Structure formats: C-alpha cells, structure tokens
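Table S7 (text form). Paired inputs.
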Amino acid sequence: MITLYHCANARSFRVLWMLEELGAAYRLEMLPFPPRVLHPAYLEINPQGTVPLLVDGQTRMTESAAICQYLASLHAPTPLGVERGEPGYGDYLNWLHFGEASLTFPQTLVLRYTLLEPEERRQPQAAEDYARFFFVRLRALEQRLQAQDFACAGRFTAADISVGYALLLARVLGHHERFGPAVRRYWERLSSRAGFVRAMAVQDEAAARQGLALLPAPGVGLGKRSQVRE
C-alpha cells in the first residue's frame, strides 16, 4: 500500500488531494511542520527532511507535482491525467509544473522569510520581492481562466491540483486578497470538489488526533545550521 508522509497544508497536500480524487488506498503519516526541525527522526526515513515523501513498494518520491503525474499514470486511464497524443497534453505538463515552479516556489520563500525563520534571520525585502514574483506569474492563470474553467484539456486534471495547492498556500499567506475574479471563481470550483473536501477532512482529523497545528508556528525555521542538516 502507498504511504504518504504529510504535513498540514504543505506541498504534500497535493498528493493527499490526488489520492482522494483517485479513490486510491493509502496510509497517511502526519508530521509536524517543518519535520526536519520538529521531528528529526524523520531524517532517517527521508534525509532531505521534506514532505511529501511517497513510498510505493520500492518507489520513493519527494516532488509533489511528479508524484501527481506518477499517480495519474499508475491509475490510467483516468480523467485526472492527459495522455500523450491527447489534445492538451503539452498544456497539461506545463501547468502541472507551473503550479510548483512558478506559483508555489516564490511563496515558500515568503513563508520562510516572514514567518518560519527567527526574527534575526528574516528578510522582509526578499519576501516582498518573491511575493511580487508570485503575483506577476498569477496573471497568466487569471488570463487563461477568463476563457475556460480549468487549466487544460477542458476538464479537471492533476494540473489543477498542482495549481490549486499554490492557491491554497496563497490563502495561508493572505495573498488571496489579490486574486483576480477568474482565479477567485476557479478557487471556489476547486475547493468545493468532493476530493478536496475529503482531503482536508482527512488532514484535519489526523492532525487533531496527534495534536499537530494546521499552520506553522513563527520562528521554527532552520535555526542554527550546525544543528540541522539542510
């Protein structure tokens, strides 16, 4: 059975959402965020100390968008994937990775340098610059969604899960106040899906059982480099 190592509202939520959309069997291992600081034993399982970690037999994967692509292939044929030769295949791959590389990555730097790091290590200017980077890239999504309901292929796919997680993180950071009207409608469509609602419920119930916070606490970032393996 697939095992997913997950932190509340972290990138691993993409994988949890994907598993729920697929109706796949899995085992969930909830961790405090960031696990490399708050649960150092996890470094023995995943030396990067990051989530997600998906274990499927001999397969071990740590990149959330790649895991979504893997799961779509594993369960093919599924409307969540777009096959080679199908119209929209290139768009599918592009938006699948756009959700991580262009929309999520800059926000993680905002999160780190405004909240996670101790006060003396915070970088307000860097955080502001990367927030601006995110908003500029978000314009491409707004423009696309003015003409269609989903990112590609005329239907909901793993690409929407990838992009949708970036919008979830934006809400955590308060960036949703600058969503355009098309992105706001898109977010409403995504967050009302049964798979999304189930994933949120599974996450929240597991966190409550273990007494884990749903949001990261201030100042719990990398701290002293000598104490934490990057």
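Next pair, protein 2 of 2.
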Amino acid sequence: MSVLTGLVEALRSGAVEVVDLTSPLSEDTPIIDLPPERGQPWPFAREEISHYDAAGPTVYWNNIRLSEHTGTHFDAPVHWLSGKDSHDVSQVPPGSLVGPAAVIDLSREAAEDPDFLMRREHVERWQEIHGDLPEGGWLLYRTGWAERQADPSAFHNGRHTPGVAPECAQWLAEKTPLTGIGVETVGTDAGLAGEFPDQPYPCHWFLHGAGKYGLTQLRNLALLPPTGAVVVAGPLPIVKGSGSPSRVLALIEHPAGGRR
C-alpha cells in the first residue's frame, strides 16, 4: 500500500482525523483595531449578486470585500519592512504549506495575565518534555483566546492580549528550524507589542525578516496533541499579496484506529 493510499484509508476509518483550525468568516469576525491615524483593514462584507432570482434564476453568489489580514489568515514575509525583499504570499513554496506542528499550551498563564508573553524558557521547557521543534514545522501557541472570538470586546480586550517576548521571537526566527508560528489572537504579536521599547512587533519583525510565516486567529488548538499533528495551510496565492485569509487544517492520528 502506498503512503497516500494509506492516508486515504486512515481518513476513512477515522485513524486520522481532520481538525479545522479556522475561525468562521463573517461580518461578525473581529479584525485588528489600529490607532485612527493609521491605515485601516476592511472587515468582511458581502454584496449579493443573485439568489435564485431575476438577477440569476439558478445561482446564488456574492461579491465580498475584506483585507488580506481579516479572520484566520496567513502572513507572508513581505507583510513587514524586515521582509520586504523576500517573497509574497503567491510565492510561498507549496511544501511550506504542509508541515508538522508543535503545540505549546500556555492558556493558564494567559488567563492569569492577558499581557502574558511567551519566553524562550517556556519553549525550552516544552522541548525537555516533547523533544526538538520540528524542522519545517509550525509552533502553535495556545492561549485560550479563541474562546473569546464570539465577543469582539473580550477578544480585543483593549489591546491587552498575549504574545511573544522579543528575545523569544528572535530566537524562534533565527535559531530554530520552524516554518512559522500560529496563534489564536488577532495577530502574531501581543496587543501592546507596538509599545515594546527595544523591538516593536517582534514576531513580525524577526520572523518575516527570516523569511518565515504567521498564522492568526486559529481555534481548536486544544484538540491537538503537543506533537504528531500535521498542519495544512491554504492561503490564496495573491500576486504581490502580503497575506491571505486562509483555511487551516490539522491532521491528527488516533493510534487505536478510531476517533476519540
């Protein structure tokens, strides 16, 4: 049996489960809240083209309007100044869109402190238990923030949202074999990261400067094991795009041969 045939059989039997890490996209999807003097991303909006009516008796469809960074989305290196000479979202190698996941759960810490920052020591402690970070993989950072997405006020929390400490972001970008980082919050950086004195927005600066990627507004990370899952990210290949709304899936294996 070939590897791919085996995968198909495992999906049919439930030995491999597909978990949707994507937040539903609608007019209620929260988007990043920027200072009023900055350029603003568009929230999701739609305009009906036809709905089995005179404009199209057999077809229902819509025009949509949104930012490249609305909802669950993929950040490409050119999204940030440090990565301006790197590649856009249409140029991401397809192999980089599929990779192993390392899931670190710091939701307890984030519940106690909404401005909590993951530090290198947290990741190294995870490695002591679970092994090295996966080559070409994603570090998925669980904070419990996905549970707030139905309430935009709680989700934004006055910009008090968890993130990554600058020294940790630089280390992940420059000294680990990761492809990128995935988070549950509206962006890969902490809500107050713009005010960090030494390096504002360190995840954006260091990861994109190293040609690495970001995934944001993920959900269902609690369903994933610390290791063993495979992430499949599906951004639109927008030419000259800084990013794209994305469908992000995870494959997880059930050794007993069926779903939990």
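The mean pLDDT is 96.
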